[in-house]
Structure formats: structure tokens, C-alpha cells
Amino acid sequence: MSSFLPPADRIWWKVPVGRQEIVWISIALVWCLIMFFMMPYWHVYGKQNLSSEAYQTNAEKFGASVETFVEKYQTRIDEQSGIPVVTPPAGSDIYMLGRLWQWYPILELEKDKTYRLHLGSMDWNHGFSLQPVNINLQVVPGYEMVIKITPDQAGEYTVVCNEFCGIGHHTMVGKIYVKEN
Amino acid sequence: MAKFRVCPDSGFYFDKSAESLMKVNAVAGAVFLLIAGILALGVILTRWQEVHLLPADLFYQVLTAHGINALIFWVIFFEIAILYFASSTLLRSRLAAPGWAWAGFALMIIGAVMNNVAVLQGNSSVMMTSYVPMQAAPHFYLGLILFAVGALIGCFVFLGTLVIAKDDQTYQGSVPLVTFGALTACIIAIFTIASGAIILFPTFLWSIGYINHIDAEMYRIIWWALGHSSQQINVAAHVSVWYLIIGILFNARPMSEKVSRFAFLLYIFFLQLASAHHILVDPGVSTEWKIFNTSYAMYLAVLASMIHGLTVPGAMEVAQRGKGYTKGLFEWLRKAPWGNPVFSGFFFALVIFGFIGGITGVVMGTEQINLIIHNTIYVPAHFHATVAVGTTLTFMALTYLLIPVLFRRALFLPWVAKMQPYVFAGGMTIMILFLLGAGTLGVSRRHWDMDFTGAALSFEYPGTAYMMMAVGGIGGVLGVLGGAMYLVVTVGSLLFGKKLEPSAGLFQSFGVPLAASAYNIDQPDQLQMAPKLAVEEHGSGGFEAPGTFVLALALLVCFVVYYAINWDYLASVWPMG
Amino acid sequence: MTEEIHIPKPERIPFFQRMLDNPFLLLFIGVAMPTVFYVLWGVMEVATIPIAK
Ligand code: HEM
Ligand SMILES: [Cu+2]
Ligand SMILES: [Cu+2]
To answer: What was the pLDDT predicted at B138?
Structure first.
């Protein structure tokens, strides 16, 4: 009743709080603090974190970096798609760009080696969604994002676009191959 | 000048102009819900891969319109009605500046129609987020801006009414808890709309060529101050409505005014920071910014929600125990009016919001865990638990209460109303749970074709993902059916429901007040403070609501387990840093 | 002859309750907090991202 009437006490702030609420608020607060400290904890002890390394760029600049990278390390052309397959040396800087509607190039990496992956978009927002691992990153035009990745299982991986990018969005599929070394 | 009428059933006083405004806003909301619901059918039947109803262009167009009509137009129109109710009606005050309120309403209608026209014309299928540099037609943005300005006027009318009520001393003491919750929603709305203006106005200028560049990342950050905060308006609004409903149905009083208001205060301070949930895997923003904001500064707004999660059912339990339902832990709940859609709707909304929406939201809003969830179909699944069940079903339940009280009509087809919350909550829960599963398997949101037809490279999701999308589809269709039942009851009641009061003719329900003779009160008596109750102790060991405490612990256990599972899942993916 | 009139002073309303009863103060806090911590801080970070070589 009084939930929609003015409080029964003029000075309701001083009405003592019941034991049940106090117990629950204490438990909940402890849980909230645990959840909060999990995040910094994982930055120190966990293995899956995002760096905040990024650069302002533009389509020409980023496109040129990617082209240089492709020319340097291209090993073949994927027959199905005509996209170059690039086999960079273990531990190097590697590049992938998103554009309507393609992830470019195809990467061939070595298992358990750490690479610096540069991601960027040539036009609109795209979503880098690595399957079936299920790692998802936002690729924003005008920015080059750098993440260290360490593929820890060999196999064929697919990059699906999971940010809506127009009518061909569902055809935007890329590949990363991870080889046993 | 007689202006107020009193509802003989509920005792609420209605200012004539406030009443009309509540009616038109609620009706307008329902119309946009109807549009959104029809579109939802197109969306869900396309995402159910074996049905795959719509072609790609139509799907994206329909999805854009579904999101905007449901999330923005339906919810905000209804919230404006709630703001007027919580100020004018609950405080027995005249509404401030009804002329402005009507102007605001007109702007909202014009804006909503304009935006829908833009999407319908076909070159504005940019999703509700309209991330630049993807461009929509200028009137897409202009419609949203006009709508926002109209809603902002509504917020100021609410604040103005609080001022008038205080000056005229229409009530004693502090404002009721429900009004305080509505104030929280209003404050969040003002921040939301201001952010919207800051980002959408330049975007509009860009769409007509006055500005040639808008930074894509700046856009995302500021847009989400609008996009996410608008969800926080909903949270504050539907929690207030929960307090209202338990007050009306059970004569419940807050377990502690101090605790509940303090929880709302935490919302005011921290809730809106969570806009950062959407920026967790974006380039360039620092870890500190992400952690501080995504956790609402140490999860203090989550603490607030956990408090309401205890005090809302707890207050109900105390009231029920006071009526003699004291057996065991749960007699108070078993003997609740499960056949009354006001109660069942409210209670399902509470449980699904807390257990599914709340837990998944906090989990995926964890900085690192977001990596395995961002932009998968898990995200829409989460917010259908919060906004499509939590908020929408709460508002549906409130509608069943308002039809007799505000519109003075008896419910049309009451047995349909009785079943409606079960169908809607049941269907949506199935959809939500299975889409959560599909998202965990990596299925994308906003994606027309999980077969990737026409792609130069191929990829196949596991069979389970297809199965989950299909079962989710069945649940979604049931949900749409539940939505249709709601609209049949509401529209039917307004048109054919038995009139409970001398009528003002055919259109009495759509904003036209009742017969003039009903408004025979100049100024209602001052609203008194709630009566003090003798202290009665029905629980045990200082625990007034032991059943609720057990439920709250159950929530906590689910929360902890699910949280741990997700860290474990995260730990299994490629190391990165 | 003076007469002292004693009106019992009502107890002062505590600070927190006065704050919660003041919608405009709350409005200020509710707008300032996210503007500073979310919007301004976030925009500053994006604005200071270094330019690619
Ligand atoms: C009535 C039954 C409903 C069904 C079956 C349904 C179904 C769906 C589905 C499957 C999606 C995701 C599509 C995708 O990302 O590919 C979606 C998106 C969405 N829905 Fe619903 N929905 C319903 C009701 C609602 C309600 C009541 C609301 C809000 C109050 C709502 C708000 C949204 C929003 C905001 C989106 C996101 C649009 C976007 O990604 O831009 N839905 N809906
Ligand atoms: Cu894309
Ligand atoms: Cu895409």
C-alpha cells in the first residue's frame, strides 16, 4: 500500500533496516566486489585479454600496409575465392582487413606461435568473429587495432562477419589456417 | 473549475488533461508494439534457418524497423504515460503545462512516423544503431531527433509536476517510492536523450551533406550512451511498476523505504556507465575505462538490482504473510493470484528479468568474457529477457490494471488475458534460452543466412546450432502469439469492453475523457502519509521474508555458477593479449 | 511582560533524506556522472589514439 503512498514515517531515513536486508546486501556486495576484481585479476593471471593498442588510420594507409604484407609473404592463391594466402614468419606482425564483403588476405599461421594481428576496415564497421573458437572483435573504420594472438590448436578457422555491413554481410567469410609445426 | 475525477474502484484521482495524455501515450505505445510484433514474426521466421522466410534486403529492413519500433517507440510512449501517472495521479496534482505535454506527444508521433516511413522506403536499413559511415536517409535521423525532443518535453512535464505538487502541498512528507523510481527513470532519460542529441544531430547534418566526416568510434561511444542508457530507463521504470503492482494487489509496503530508495539512488549514480558494455572489444579505449564503466563502478548498480530483487518479492511476501499465508517457506507464493494477469505478468517479468536477463547481462558485460559473446545472437537473446520480457511484460501487466482504472472499461475476453502472460513468457523464454545457446556456438546476430550462401569461402555451423535456432524460432512464434493476445485484449477492451462509467461516446477510450460530469473535484484532499502499522513479525529470526531470501540465494547460486562456467569457457579459447 | 512560546522543533531531516527529496540535485548527479566518466573520459581516449605511421 505504501509503495505508492508517501512513507509512513516523516524521517524514514532513520527507520532501522531489517536484518534480512542487511545480510543480503552484505552478501551481494561481496559478490559484486569479487566480480569487479576478477577483471584486473585476469589481466594479470589470465591468458585472454585485449590490449588497447590501436592507431588512427585511414583506408589508404591501412590498405597499403596490408598490401605490403601480402606481397612479402604470399605463398599461393586460394582457388575457391581468388584471395591470396599469406604465410608470415612465426611471431611476426600480421594483417587482416575487412571490406565489403571480404576478409583479406587468408592467413596461414603456426600453432603455438604468437603473432601481432593488425585489424582494420576499409569502409564500414565489420565484426571479426573467429569460428569455431568464438572470439569476437569490433572492426571500426579509421582505426587499426593490434592484438597478440596465439593459436593453440591446429586446424581450419573461419572469420565470419558479425557486424551488419549491408546486403552482402552474410557472404563475408574469411579463413585462418593453423599448421602443426 | 472542476478538473479531477476519482476512480471509485482504486481511489486514484485523475487530472483531466493528465488522464487524456496517459491514454494517448499508452495507446500510441500499443500501436507501435503491434507493428514491432508483426515484424518480429518476419525476423524470427527468417532466423529459423529451415524456414528462412524473407529475402536478405527485406530481412534487414524488417529487423531495423522491429528494433526501433519495439525498443524505442513502444517502450518510450508507454513510459511517458507512466511518468504522468506517477506524478499527477499518484501525487494528486494537476499536470504541469499540459499544452507542452501535448506538443511533446505530437513531436513523438511525427518523429516515429517519419522514421518508419524512412525505413519503409527502403534505403535506411541501417539497424537501429545506424553506425556511421553507413548512411540512412536524412529523415531517418530527423524522425529520431523529433521523437527524442518530444520525449524530453515529457520528462520536463514530469519534473514540473513534481514541483507543482510540492508547492501546492498535494501530499505529505516525501514522494511515494513509485514516484521516486519514476524520477530515477526520468533522470536517466534526460541523460539518454541529451546523448542522443549530441550524436544524432551531427549525423543528420552529415546525411544532408553539411558535415563531411563523423568519426566511427566517437559515434559508437556516444551512440551507446543513448542506446544503452535507454535500457536503463526501462529498468528503473519497470522496477517502479513492480512496486506499484505489489502495492495495489497485496497492499504491500516497501520492506524499508531507505533501502529501496538507496537502491534507486545507486541507479542514478552508476547505471548509465554500463553503456561501455558495447565498447568492450572496440579499438583503442583503455582497459581502465572499460573496467570502471562496464562494472558500473564496482558493480554498484548490480548491487542495486540485487536489492530490488530481494525487496520487491520480499515486500509481497511480508504482505501475504500478514494475511495469514504463513505456512512453510512458500505458501505466500503458492496462494498468490496466479489467474490474475496483473500478477502473473509481473511475476514472470521479475523472474525472467532477474534469472536470465540480469545474469547474462552481467556475465557478457564482463570485460574479457565479452570476447566470446560480442555480436553473437546471444546478445539479442539477453536483451529479450530484459526488455522484451522484463519491461514489456511488466507494462502488459500494468495495462490490465489500467484498462479498468484509467480507461474505465471491463476487460474484453478475460480468459485470453488470463493466459496471455503464460503464453508470452513461455514462448519468449524458449526463444531466449535457445538463442543464448546458439550464440555460445558462435551464431551471429543481425545475420540473414547461417549457410553463407554465395560466399566465396564456406563455413558450416554445427548441427546443434541449427537445432537451437529452430527451437528458438518455435518459441519466438509462441511469443508473437502471446503479444497478439495482449493486443486483442487491449484493443478489444477499448472498443468493446463494458463501460464502467458514463460514457463520452465512441472514442472515450482513446484520449477523450469520460463524460464531463465525472470530473467534479477541484482539488483532491491532501495525500496523507501511509498509515503506520503495528509491528507484526511473521518470519523467523529477524527474517521477515524467509521464502524470498531462499529465492534470492537461488539466484545467487545460479549467478555464481554461470559466471564461473563462462570464465572457464573463456580460458579455453586462443590466448590473446 | 514577555511570554516565551515553545514550539517543539521538528527533528531535522537527515542529509541523505533531503538529498533524495531533491529531484534537481539528483538530476544533476545523474547527468554529471555518466557524462564525466563515460562520455568525456571515453571521447578523450579515442581522441588521443596515436596516428599510424
Ligand atoms: C514478440 C516477440 C518477439 C520476437 C519473436 C522477437 C525476435 C527477435 C529476434 C530473433 C531478433 C534478432 C535478430 C537478429 O539479430 O538477427 C530480434 C531483435 C531485436 N528485438 Fe525482438 N522479438 C520480439 C519482441 C521484441 C520486443 C517486445 C522488443 C523490445 C521491447 C524487441 C526488441 C528487439 C531489438 C531492439 C532487436 C535488435 C535489433 C537490431 O539488432 O538492431 N523485440 N527480435
Ligand atoms: Cu562485414
Ligand atoms: Cu558484416
So the answer is: 96
Residue C2 has pLDDT above 70, yes or no: no
Instruction: Give the pLDDT mean for B526-548.
Output: 77
What is the C-alpha separation between B25 and B227, in angstroms, rounded?
A: 21
Q: Report the CATH number of the A52-179 domain.
A: 2.60.40.420
Residue A10, chain C, CB below 8 Å: the answer is: yes
**Cell numbers for B395:** 507494462
Is residue C10 scored above 80 in pLDDT? Answer: no
Whole-structure pTM value: 0.95
Q: Which residues of B touch A106 (CB under 8 A)?
A: 457
Please report which confidence band the pLDDT of residue A2 belongs to, taking 50, 70 and 90 as the band edges.
confident
Co-location of B127 and B224 in the same domain: yes
In this prediction the ipTM stands at 0.95
Compare CB distances from A6 to B171, B541, B563 and report the shortest one's residue: B171
What residue in C sits closest to A60 (Cα-Cα)? C52
Mean local confidence (pLDDT), B57-81: 96
Question: To test ligand 1's pocket by mutation, which of B115, B129, B384, B434 has the most ligand atoms within 8 angstroms of CB?
Answer: B384
Long-range contacts formed by B200-204: CB under 8 A, 24+ apart: B200/B141, B200/B144, B200/B145, B200/B148, B200/B226, B201/B145, B203/B130, B203/B132, B203/B141, B204/B138, B204/B141, B204/B142, B204/B145
Closest-CA residue to B298 (of C37, C44, A13): C37
Write out pLDDT tens, residues B309-356.
Answer: 999 999 999 999 989 998 889 999 999 999 999 999 999 999 999 999
Q: How many independent structural domains does chain B possess? A: 2
| Residues B199, B344 within the same domain | no
Closest-CA residue of chain A to B446? A164
What is the separation of C-alpha B278 from the centre of its chain, rounded to a whole number of angstroms? 19
Q: What is the pLDDT of residues C20-42, one digit of tens each?
A: 999 999 999 999 999 999 999 99
Domain that holds residue B471: 337-451+459-510
pLDDT at B510: 78
Q: How confident is the model at residue B541 (pLDDT cuts 50, 70, 90)?
A: low
Residue B575 within any structural domain of the chain = no
| Inter-residue contact B371 to A48 (CB < 8 Å) | yes
Q: Which residue of B has its CA nearest to A18?
A: B542
Asked if A13 is an interface residue toward chain C (Cβ–Cβ < 8 A), one would say yes
Pocket test for ligand 1, best of B66, B75, B224 (most atoms within 8 A of CB): B66
- Across the interface, whether the CB atoms of C20 and B180 are under 8 A apart is answered yes
For chain B, give the percent of residues with pLDDT over 90: 86
| Residue A156 contacts B, CB cutoff 8 Å | no
Which ligand 1 atom is at minimum distance from the Cα of B64?
Answer: 41
**Residue B52 within any structural domain of the chain:** yes
Residue B526 lies in a domain: no
Domain harbouring B52, CATH code = 1.20.210.10
Across the interface, of C17, C49, C50, the residue whose CB is closest to A13 is C17
Cβ–Cβ < 8 Å for B406, B19: yes
Q: Give the residue extent of every domain in chain C.
A: 16-45
How far is the C-alpha of B177 from the C-alpha of B73, rounded, in Å?
A: 26
Residues with a CB atom less than 6 Å from ligand 1? B 36-37, 40, 43-44, 47, 63, 66-67, 70-71, 74-75, 127-128, 380, 384, 387-388, 392, 431, 445-447, 476, 479-480, 483
Question: Which residues of A fall within a CB distance of 8 Å from C17?
Answer: 11-13
Q: Predicted confidence band at B296 (pLDDT cuts at 50, 70, 90)?
A: confident
Residues near B324 by beta carbon (within 8 Å), at least 6 away in sequence: none
Residues B346 and B201 in one domain: no
The answer to the question of residue B286 being in a domain is: no
Specify the DSSP class assigned to residue A158.
E
